[in-house]
Amino acid sequence: MRVNGIAIDDGFAEAFAMKATRLVITAHERMWAMLAATSATGMATSVIGCGCEGGIEGELSPQETPDGRPGVSILLFAVSGKELARQVERRVGQCVMTCPTTAIFAGLREGEPVPLGRNLRFFGDGWQIAKVIAGVRYWRIPVMDGEFVAQETTRVVKGVGGGNLLLLARDTDAALAGATAAAQAMRMPGVILPFPGGVVRSGSKVGSKYSSLPASTNEAFCPSLAGRARSELGEEVRCVLEIVIDGMTEGSVAAAMRAGMAAVIARGAQAGVSRITAGNYGGKLGPFHFRLHQLLPEGAAP
Predict the structure, then answer these.
(1) CATH of 2-15+159-295, one of 3.40.50.720, 1.20.1440.230, 3.30.70.520, 3.30.565.10
(2) Which residues make beta-bridge pairs with 14?
(3) Which of 33, 34, 112, 242 is most buried by a 10 A CB count?
(4) Could you give the CA distance from residue 250 to residue 40 in angstroms, rounded to a whole number?
(5) In sequence order, what are the beta bridge partners of 59?
(6) Domain Formylmethanofuran: tetrahydromethanopterin formyltransferase Ftr C-terminal spans what residues (predicted)?
């Protein structure tokens, strides 16, 4: 199928179940909340090597935060609730509690509770104080600029990881422009794009010729290997970029993929992206299958 000159594969993106949580970071000024959020979601691109996948969901006005200060919402995803709890505690302890004027709150009301400030309170060395407001326990931990306030627990729910789009383009400039437009359109509540700028060039396949590696380069989409390995690329394709999506629900991942496809299609084939496809493993990796033809923007005609 071609839409606006761009080939849309009759395939699907295969995604898998993850555990997810939302955290709300506030601070005296917006800048400090954003700095803490950026640090807390650093090196969180892939569960393969980072332990979790994370990103900034969006900024919050003082009217939207528990303590009436500027805030930032972040999402974290991991393959198990135990690993996610470990990542939450480590990242909040090292990147949020350390950042001037910040406080940390749970961004979900439902789900399985895991420690947020429950263990971090011991940094207070006995000077920490608990406060219960409207049935929710918070910890006030003394620090050098005042107090670090942390809600005792956050909530963990089921999430979806690994939604993806592959953009095949004539050259680097066209691929970057298309991927940037798509990533910008895909940023919406309930979704993160965990890779730098939302875009990844080292798309992977499951497994490797080296037994110690769980994943390795996806040679079928590497232009430099065309003619030497099994290839998915025509002669006109010289650059491929991928966008990976994690979402709080199956619907949020689908909405983001639809928005990304619409952004690329609106630019047309003349902009240099000639084909949109997606990564899957024959249905063996995960239960969530996002079929590209079903995600075409409303009114799109072949």
Answers:
(1) 3.30.70.520
(2) 289
(3) 33
(4) 25
(5) 72
(6) 146-295
Q: SS3 string of 228-240?
A: CECCCCCCCCCEE
Domain ranges across the chain: 2-15+159-295, 19-157
- For tokens 């590209």, what's the residue? 292
Q: Which residue type is seen at 122?
A: F
Q: What pTM value is reported for the model?
A: 0.95
Q: Which two tokens stand for residue 154?
A: 């956050």
Query: Which residue in this structure is represented by tokens 């990542």?
Result: 87
pLDDT along the chain (302 residues), means of 10: 96 96 98 98 95 98 98 98 98 98 98 98 98 97 98 98 97 98 98 98 92 94 94 96 98 98 97 96 85 88 54
Say which amino acid occupies 152.
Answer: E
What CATH number is given for 19-157 in this structure?
3.30.70.520
Alpha-carbon distance 302 to 299, whole Å?
Answer: 10
